[in-house]
């Protein structure tokens, strides 16, 4: 799961018959805690939408157009019928919500990642009482899961997070691969040179294939890397700013706050305080906090 300047191509996965994240049509909407161990899990598309909330460890999610690195206190929405491939760390603990497609309000194309909000954390913890074996005519559970589905629009309205696009054309793939490992010095001129194309053509590739400008792409890549450095590697704000290409902490703080809605220090503080889902299943008291070693 480390950074690489190798080109990445998406290949359609085979359906993993032992996929612990799959929840078929006959089963009701539910929430469960999954500990998959170190694994590579493929799916050509599940019957239900799902939200994966990382409690511990790491997940790398790949879809047709890009990949996400999911750290503790972050979650990702995977739409129903969307093919994906998951790489899970040996210590991964994931709370998974399986939601029906019929009442989930979704506003994005493909998968989307976000921090786990306080409300989401409490709601997923409460919903753990309704696992796969719950009665499908439980009116309270059905209303609760409908509310979860409706809240997705609010929970995932943030800027695109933790995402690295693949690209379609060879030139764009080379530009992305180059930029990923040179965030401290990357410019569009250097990326175009590495891609073997002109700056003008590369700008067009970014807009046509990814629907974003070079500037927006670089910002998203820098912010995704910054989140990883501050939370997983516990780098200071100053160290992180320099690692991702900012010459001043003030400029980095402004960019990070605009992107996430929080300052770097408050984002890290919230991460350290919110790396668990309370276990309220079957009316039990709040679960013990799970300390993360990542």
Structure in a nutshell:
With 294 residues, the protein is of the alpha+beta class.
Walk me through the topology:
Blueprint: E1 30-34, E2 39-43, E3 49-56, E4 59-62, E5 66-70, E6 74-78, E7 84-88, E8 93-99, E9 112-115, H1 118-127, H2 139-155, E10 163-165, H3 170-180, H4 188-195, H5 199-210, H6 214-231, H7 237-243, H8 249-260, H9 264-273
Antiparallel strand pairs: 1-8, 2-7, 3-6, 3-8, 4-5, 4-7, 5-10, 6-9
Organism: Caballeronia udeis
Domain HTH araC/xylS-type: 173-270
Keywords: DNA-binding, Transcription, Transcription regulation
Give descriptors for this structure.
2 domains, transcription regulation, Jelly Rolls, Arc Repressor Mutant, subunit A, globular, 9 helices, AraC family transcriptional regulator, sequence-specific DNA binding, HTH_AraC-typ_CS, 5-stranded antiparallel sheet
Q: What do the pLDDT scores average to?
A: 89
CATH class of the largest domain: Mainly Beta
Instruction: Give the helix tally.
Output: 9
Percent strand equals 15-25%
Total E-strand runs: 10
CATH superfamily of the largest domain: Regulatory protein AraC
How do the strands line up in the largest sheet? Answer: 1-8-3-6-9
Structural class: alpha+beta
Task: Please give the alpha-carbon distance between the first and last residues.
Answer: 12 Å
How would you explain this protein's 3D organization?
The protein is of the alpha+beta class and 294 residues long. The protein folds into 2 domains: 30-155, Jelly Rolls (Sandwich); 168-260, Orthogonal Bundle (Arc Repressor Mutant, subunit A), CATH 1.10.10.60. Helices cover 36% and strands 17% of the residues. It is built from 9 helices and 10 strands. It has a 5-stranded antiparallel beta sheet, covered by helices on one side. Strands 2-7-4-5-10 form a 5-stranded antiparallel beta sheet. β4 and β5 (66-70) form a beta hairpin. α3 (170-180) packs across α4 (188-195) and α4 packs across α5.
């Amino acid at each position: 799961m480390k950074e690489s300047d190798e080109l990445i191509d998406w290949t359609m996965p085979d359906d993993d018959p032992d996929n612990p994240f799959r929840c078929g049509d006959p089963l009701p909407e539910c929430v469960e805690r999954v500990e998959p161990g170190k694994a590579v899990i493929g799916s050509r598309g599940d019957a239900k939408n799902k939200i994966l909330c990382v409690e511990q460890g790491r997940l790398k999610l790949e879809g047709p157009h890009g990949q996400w690195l999911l750290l503790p206190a972050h979650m990702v929405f995977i739409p129903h019928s969307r093919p994906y491939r998951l790489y899970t760390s040996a210590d991964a603990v994931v709370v998974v919500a399986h939601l029906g497609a019929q009442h989930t309000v979704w506003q994005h194309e493909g998968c989307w990642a976000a921090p786990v909000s306080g409300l989401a954390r409490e709601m997923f913890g409460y919903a753990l009482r309704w696992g796969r074996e719950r009665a499908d005519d439980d009116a309270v559970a059905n209303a609760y899961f409908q509310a979860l589905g409706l809240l997705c629009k609010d929970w995932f309205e943030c800027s695109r997070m933790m995402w690295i696009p693949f690209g379609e054309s060879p030139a764009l793939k080379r530009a992305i691969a180059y930029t990923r490992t040179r965030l401290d010095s990357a410019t569009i001129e250097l990326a175009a040179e590495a891609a073997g194309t002109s700056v003008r053509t590369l700008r067009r590739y970014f807009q046509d294939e990814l629907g974003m400008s070079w500037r927006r792409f670089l910002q998203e890549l820098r912010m995704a890397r910054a989140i990883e450095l501050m939370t997983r590697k516990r780098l200071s704000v100053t160290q992180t700013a320099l690692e991702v290409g900012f010459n001043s902490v003030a400029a980095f703080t402004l960019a990070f706050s605009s992107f996430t809605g929080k300052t770097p220090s408050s984002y890290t503080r919230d991460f350290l305080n919110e790396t668990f889902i309370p276990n309220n299943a079957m009316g039990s008291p709040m679960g013990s906090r799970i300390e993360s070693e990542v």
